[in-house]
Amino acid sequence: MYVQVVEMKALYPGSFDPITFGHLELIKRGCDLFGEVIVAVLKNPHKNADFDLKTRLNQISEATKGINGVTVISFEGLTVNCAKKEKADLILRGLRAMSDFEYELQISHTNRSLNSSYETVFLATEAHHSFLSSSMVKEVARFGGKTEHMVPEGVAKDLKRLFN
Ligand code: ADP
To answer: Which of 28, 53, 96, 98 has the fewest other C-beta atoms within 10 Å?
Structure first.
């Protein structure tokens, strides 16, 4: 638990295809730090998601229903435009390992170049969640492995349904 200095609204954008315990950790810590987190699910026509938008929104709403300060929305287009529309104060992203760093740095510079009002705040994920990614979780499920320790209960069920 942190001492919250100023109440702020953080926009946490991503594909969340599907949400994992790593994402959930970031949402909880974001709420503790800033008071409010808007989870913004990207509707990207150029990226083929395994779970459709409605399912991803339901999965996140279900997984975050006990956390105070969370709103779940979908968006299309630029993250900075979504941040402006939602009256967010900052953009929240997670860093798992060095491999995330280059990509995340590039996105944050791009966003600053588009609208310098938005700082990106990075939280380093807890070590025990640092191996988790949506694509790895799907790979495990595709080969019949257990995912209950990686994703919320409802998502584990959805994964079974998707790959069985
Ligand atoms: P994108 O397609 O935009 O990379 P993701 O849904 O994969 O979206 O991830 C959204 C954000 O959550 C990114 O900042 C990513 O680094 C972070 N993230 C993903 N997995 C984890 C994890 N296991 N722990 C903490 N943060 C994570």
So the answer is: 98
Classify burial at 48, counting beta carbons within 10 Å of its beta carbon; exposed 0-12, middle 13-18, buried 19 or more.
exposed
The gap from C-alpha 39 to its chain's centroid, in whole angstroms, comes to 6
- Cis upstream peptide for 45 (omega within 30°): no
Q: How far is the CA of 76 from the centre of ligand 1 (A)?
A: 18
Interval 1-57: pLDDT, tens: 666 667 899 999 999 999 999 999 999 999 999 999 999 999 988 888 999 999 999
Ligand 1 centre from 145 Cα, in Å?
Answer: 22
Q: Which of 23, 29, 56, 93 is catalytic?
A: 23
* Domains in the chain: ranges and CATH: 8-128 (3.40.50.620)
pTM of the model: 0.93
